């Protein structure tokens, strides 16, 4: 295992950390500015920024996902640090719980032991997906955080730029990263399909995780290199 010092001497090995930091900084900067923005509902930029913030929330979860596969850093403590921080900021999740569930998905894909799979239509599958991951303690954490933050921040801003984008990103993650790739029958051992090659669409929909068969084939490939696996 490389130490942090040895990684600093080799910037190439630190790329995963750079990408993780970039997403965290973009998310925090955008959120800070939006929460302090005295906006008007007639401003179309409001609605654009909701989707920008949604995409950045999805980026937080994707960063944690990379951490679960050990691709942020070869230093385990540093790698896991980004995982813990990202999922907690995303919605009060606990990294170790998500870690176990995600690796169950890879080990038992498309079976009863797969927490990401349900043999139902979109809404029933989405509900099953959410119930598998959301916990009471997480809801309490988010409720406490909301009520503390609204002491200083306008509740309207909190709802529109903090709560709503986080909720919307669960649809983005589920639809493009789970439902579409795994629905139906497939002729491969990973029970997964993949998007047609279009890197722009693949990025804006779910950070290249529409290339889902390739992710299952090469889970040690970080999101920002996943496009390279697409023949």
Automatic annotation (TrEMBL):
GO terms for biological process: lipid metabolic process. Residues 44-137 form the Fatty acid desaturase domain. Pfam families: FA_desaturase (PF00487). The chain crosses the membrane at residues 16-39, 45-66, 78-95, 125-146, 158-177. The keyword Transmembrane applies. It comes from the Bacteria. Keywords: Membrane, Transmembrane, Transmembrane helix. This is Fatty acid desaturase.
């Amino acid at each position: 295992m490389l130490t942090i010092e040895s990684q600093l001497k080799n910037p190439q090995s630190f790329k995963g950390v750079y990408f993780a930091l970039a997403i965290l900084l973009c998310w925090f900067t955008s959120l800070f500015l939006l929460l302090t923005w005295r906006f008007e509902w007639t401003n179309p930029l409001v609605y654009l920024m909701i989707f920008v913030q949604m995409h950045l929330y999805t980026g937080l979860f994707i960063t944690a996902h990379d951490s679960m596969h050990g691709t942020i850093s070869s230093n385990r403590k540093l790698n896991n640090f980004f995982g813990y921080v990202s999922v907690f900021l995303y919605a009060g999740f606990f990294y170790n719980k998500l870690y176990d569930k995600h690796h169950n998905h890879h080990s038992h894909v498309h079976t009863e032991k797969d927490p990401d799979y349900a043999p139902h239509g979109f809404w029933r599958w989405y509900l099953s997906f959410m119930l598998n991951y959301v916990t009471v303690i997480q809801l309490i954490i988010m409720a406490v955080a909301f009520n503390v933050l609204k002491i200083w921040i306008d509740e309207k801003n909190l709802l529109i730029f903090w709560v709503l984008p986080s909720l919307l990103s669960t649809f983005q993650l589920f639809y493009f990263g789970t439902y579409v790739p795994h629905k139906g029958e497939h002729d491969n051992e990973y029970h997964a399909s993949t998007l047609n090659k279009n890197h722009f669409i693949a990025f804006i929909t779910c950070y290249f995780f529409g290339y889902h068969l390739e992710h299952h084939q090469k889970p040690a490939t970080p999101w920002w290199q996943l496009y390279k696996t697409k023949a």
